[in-house]
């Protein structure tokens, strides 16, 4: 990767107009690509946006831009799967894991009370573990984790060594969680998809790793959740800049992920 020129490729798709016009979010995606790989990256994101179970988009934006910062490669978080028989069990397990990661119980309770509200946010919500309040001030836009990718060949090799299925959803989610947990202000992440056909979610943290939970909602439910529990005394502008702009590859032989 050294010496090569890379581009950040991003896609977002919505129904009934653009996101800014109140359209329903359908899909989004991120890739880092060389110039020679741009066509494949764009086509992959186009296919993703057109084949999502949330519906058929009537608005899609795909854009790419030159990445002028050095791209670090960081090691993926350790992964573990936890079975849950119901959405209630899944949320109870998520609460236990968040506490293990260092999030106070009363803060978790406050965040869960606002989950329905947060499900309307397109990106992630930053929730302060000290005040128990949302602190990103991004309203319905939220914070979008960007400029990251996990090269397919490296992911396949990593998955084969661990007996992990070649699941593109898990690959993307683990890549995001790994980048998110790489910033010192982030204590933990809670996430489940807005895809009505995908009910698995996860909790991630620096020492906790990536903890998959097999059931976080019911099939057919289009509400999702992405909450980053952060230390509000840290430099949150630096945290948001890192999440949105710092280019990173996830790579099995990369650096430890607990520093940015």
Automatic annotation (TrEMBL):
Biological process (GO) annotations held by this record are:
biotin biosynthetic process
Give the protein's cofactors. Mg(2+)
- Which reaction(s) are listed as its catalytic activity? heptanedioate + ATP + CoA = 6-carboxyhexanoyl-CoA + AMP + diphosphate
Q: Which InterPro entries match?
A: BioW (IPR005499)
Q: Which terms does the record give in the GO molecular function aspect?
A: 6-carboxyhexanoate-CoA ligase activity; ATP binding; magnesium ion binding
Which domain of life does the protein's organism represent?
A: Bacteria
Which EC class heads this enzyme's classification?
Answer: ligase
User: Sorted alphabetically, which Pfam families does this protein's record hold?
Assistant: BioW
Q: What is its EC number?
A: 6.2.1.14
| Keyword set, alphabetical order | ATP-binding, Biotin biosynthesis, Ligase, Magnesium, Nucleotide-binding
Pathway info: Metabolic intermediate metabolism; pimeloyl-CoA biosynthesis; pimeloyl-CoA from pimelate: step 1/1
Q: How does it assemble?
A: Homodimer.
What's the stated role of this polypeptide? Catalyzes the transformation of pimelate into pimeloyl-CoA with concomitant hydrolysis of ATP to AMP.
Report the sequence similarity comment from the record.
Answer: Belongs to the BioW family.
**Protein name (Swiss-Prot/TrEMBL):** 6-carboxyhexanoate--CoA ligase
Record organism: Bacillus glycinifermentans
* Organism lineage string: Bacteria, Bacillati, Bacillota, Bacilli, Bacillales
